[in-house]
Amino acid sequence: MSELCSHTAGMADLAWTARPRHPDPHVRIRFTGNKVTITTDSVRAQMALRRIPSVNETEHGDFVLSDSLTEREKVRVVVRIDLHLDGQNVASHIDLGLATPGDIPPAPPLSSPVAAPVPVPATQRRTL
Length: 128
Fold this sequence. Notes:
By secondary structure, the chain is of the alpha+beta class. Helices cover 29% and strands 17% of the residues. The protein is built from four helices and five strands, in the order H-H-E-E-H-E-E-H-E. A five-stranded mixed beta sheet has the order 3-4-2-1-5. A hairpin with a 2-residue loop joins strand 1 and strand 2. Helix 2 crosses helix 4. The mean pLDDT is 77.
């Protein structure tokens, strides 16, 4: 339980429930399992990401966090990246890989009719 709670504050700061969504973010950070990938089309964001020690650039021009980091360390690095980019007016979107209400499909229709309530005869009703 202590492992779960140890970085809950960082996860809550990054969660879709606590963050406004920018309509066209320049940086997208995605948690997938134990991997964190970062994509951007902004030269300014690329330059900022290259200066962060735990961020590695791939041959495709994207970025990933070092595999040697623990999950807690990855959350901390992402919080720092987000703050750094925000300070430079670079919009980012962080996807924690958690479902949002829009991701939850509607319940399937009931296949059997719902049982009607059993009526209580008038003679068994209690009066006060």
